[in-house]
């Protein structure tokens, strides 16, 4: 009888061990599948070609891959640098509500008060309400992943689930920690790459794009207008008698005037407009989707604001003026014409600028619509 009882106990132990082994195998297979999904996402992040493509890959992954119900990305951007980069790429941030920016790092630090590790648990509207868009219902549970580089927070990747059990407090966070590290590195690298690209395409004095950048964008904008038949206006802007500023007040004052004028020009431009220092005291701008009438209005506002701006050098006040030539490519006037090139548009604007100079300066002259 005792022997039979021992045999039964042994058999029960074997069955229990088999169940435990089956559970471990199932868990291992589950982790293997999860690892493959994370690795697939990481390879995609590493392989993208631009900062915006990277951000899109982060906040818009395939739902079937992870089944995260909502995702948002908060980036530390104190100088608005990332936002300017995206604007120059033509990104409308209004269309991407789950991409957010913080100019004060304390906003991100408040999400991780105890440590720089993922935070999992129930959703709190008071703490996490600003991280998730109001266009959908609030998640039941969340996973907040800190993006850290060199010991400093650069952002937060925020995942939400409609299931209260999906991101439970106390769950292992190994995969999330690895994903956060990869995302942080990719964002830092992509931002640095954009900085390097802009250094080669940026005028260091005025912090505007340089001639090389403008020539690249001119071709792209003209070809885009041909495809869409949207109008494209070009402004050439030249500071009047700039040599007199250098001769009278010195080159340092002349440099300051160029910087101030560039800043004023940016103030009259949209984020999608292209502004460049074209050479010397001359600037060029491309205004997409802007008719001749609207372009002349913008140019006139620029001319007036500069005319009334008081500059100074060693307490000596002085004023400057600017002449502006306008040319507008209107492919809708001649749908069959594909012959116009960027150089043609610039030549028309340059001719209008020459007329403005010849007629007394401090004025806006337009050559009208150009159809091709």
User: What Rg, in angstroms, do the CA atoms define?
Assistant: 30 Å
Task: Outline the biggest β-sheet.
Answer: 5 strands, mixed
Number of separate strands? 14
Helix content, binned percent: 40-55%
CATH architecture label name of the largest domain = 2-Layer Sandwich
Question: Mean pLDDT, as a whole number?
Answer: 87
Distance between the termini: 104 Å
* Shape field: elongated
Q: In what range is the share of β-strand residues?
A: 15-25%
- Element order, helices and strands? HHHEHEHEHEEHEEHEHHEEHEEEHE
Q: Please report the number of helical segments.
A: 12
Assembly state of the chains shown: single chain
Number of domains: 2
Q: Spans of 5+ residues with little confidence (pLDDT < 50)?
A: none
The H-level CATH homologous superfamily of the largest domain, spelled out, is: GAF domain
Class by helix and strand content? Answer: alpha+beta
What does this structure look like?
The protein is an alpha+beta fold and 372 residues long. It has two domains: 29-198, 2-Layer Sandwich (Beta-Lactamase), CATH 3.30.450; 203-370, Alpha-Beta Plaits, CATH 3.30.70. The protein contains twelve helices and 14 strands. The chain has a five-stranded mixed sheet with strand order 2-1-5-4-3. Strands 9-10-8-13-14 form a five-stranded mixed sheet, sandwiched between helices. Strand 13, helix 12 and strand 14 (364-370) form a beta-alpha-beta unit. The longest helix has 46 residues, at 2-47. The protein starts with a helix and ends with a strand.
């Amino acid at each position: 009888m005792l022997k039979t009882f021992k045999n039964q106990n042994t058999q029960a132990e074997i069955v229990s061990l088999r169940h435990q082994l089956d559970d471990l195998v199932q868990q291992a297979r589950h982790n293997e599948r999860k690892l493959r999904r994370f690795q697939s996402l990481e390879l995609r992040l590493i392989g993208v070609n631009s900062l915006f493509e990277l951000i899109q890959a982060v906040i818009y992954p395939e739902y079937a891959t992870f089944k995260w119900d909502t995702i948002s990305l908060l980036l530390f951007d104190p100088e608005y640098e990332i936002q300017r980069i995206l604007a120059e790429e033509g990104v409308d941030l209004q269309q991407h509500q789950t991409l957010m920016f913080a100019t004060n790092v304390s906003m991100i630090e408040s999400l991780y008060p105890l440590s720089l590790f993922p935070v999992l648990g129930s959703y709190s509207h008071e703490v996490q309400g600003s991280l998730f868009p109001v266009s959908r219902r609030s998640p039941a549970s969340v996973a907040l992943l800190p993006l850290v580089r060199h010991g400093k927070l650069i952002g937060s990747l925020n995942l939400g689930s409609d299931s209260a059990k999906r991101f439970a407090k106390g769950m292992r966070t190994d995969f999330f920690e690895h994903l956060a590290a990869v995302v942080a590195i990719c964002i830092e690298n992509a931002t640095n790459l954009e900085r390097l690209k802009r250094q080669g395409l940026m005028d260091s004095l005025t912090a505007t794009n340089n001639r090389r950048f403008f020539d690249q964008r001119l071709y792209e904008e003209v070809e885009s207008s041909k495809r869409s038949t949207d109008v494209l206006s070009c402004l050439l802007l030249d500071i009047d008698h700039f040599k007199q500023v250098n001769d009278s007040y010195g080159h340092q004052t002349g440099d300051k005037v160029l910087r101030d004028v560039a800043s004023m020009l940016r103030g009259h431009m949209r984020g999608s407009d292209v502004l460049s220092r074209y050479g010397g005291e001359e600037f060029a701008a491309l205004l997409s989707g802007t008719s001749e009438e609207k372009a002349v209005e913008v140019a006139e506002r620029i001319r007036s604001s500069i005319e009334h701006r008081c500059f100074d050098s060693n307490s000596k006040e002085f004023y400057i003026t600017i002449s502006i030539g306008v040319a507008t490519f209107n492919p809708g006037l001649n749908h069959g014409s594909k012959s116009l090139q960027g150089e043609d548009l610039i030549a028309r604007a340059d001719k209008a600028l020459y007329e403005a100079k010849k007629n007394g300066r401090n004025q806006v002259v337009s050559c009208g619509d150009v159809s091709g």
